[in-house]
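Q: What residues go here?
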């Protein structure tokens, strides 16, 4: 985890230095700009990129499998990844296509458009339990609706109560007419 943090910090530093050089005026000293960026990042302040990510104090989101499916509550984890997703969903509902690996009978995933910047706090996960929802970098939400042994780098973002009704809703999500795919609708429940 520490190694990942240092890698991310290094990448943010390189990005900031590059951006400072691009935005400096001919009269300013680019080395002075770089030093200010470096000291502010090492001082523990959030990067400008992270400041633009909407955050939310929401503790749950509502998910429908299909446009007219029953709604289920996803209880959110207390981390920056879940807060960013809730922040974006708070501004507009997400209507995402459903995919699975080789017609998997334990999980499905939803690709989030790349315009959304979501922080990654991934760790190695070796067991997924029914109802767990993960973020996979870059910009993918992964839902396990049955237990599974895995070896993936994920950030846990939420959990559903894995009732029979929930599993049936996931498995029986209708294919959207004219689109040839299933969808999932994620909203803040309002």
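A:
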């Amino acid at each position: 985890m520490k190694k990942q943090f240092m890698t991310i910090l290094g990448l943010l530093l390189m990005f900031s230095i590059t951006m400072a050089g691009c935005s400096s005026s001919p009269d300013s000293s680019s080395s002075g700009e770089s030093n200010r960026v470096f000291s502010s990042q090492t001082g523990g302040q959030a990067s400008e990129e992270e400041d633009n990510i909407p955050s939310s104090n929401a503790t749950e989101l509502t998910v429908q499998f299909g446009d007219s499916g029953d709604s289920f509550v996803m209880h959110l984890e207390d981390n920056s990844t879940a807060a960013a997703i809730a922040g974006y969903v708070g501004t507009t509902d997400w209507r995402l296509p459903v995919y699975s690996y080789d017609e998997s009978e334990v999980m499905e995933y939803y690709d989030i458009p790349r315009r959304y910047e979501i922080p990654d706090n991934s760790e190695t996960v070796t067991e997924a339990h029914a109802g767990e929802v993960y973020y996979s970098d870059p910009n993918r939400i992964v839902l396990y609706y049955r237990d599974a042994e895995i070896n993936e780098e994920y950030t846990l973002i939420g959990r559903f109560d894995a009732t029979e009704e929930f599993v049936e809703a996931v498995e029986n999500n209708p294919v959207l007419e004219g689109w040839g795919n299933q969808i999932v609708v994620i909203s803040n429940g309002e």
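A: Context that may help when evaluating the design: The longest helix spans residues 2-23. The two ends are 36 Å apart (CA to CA).
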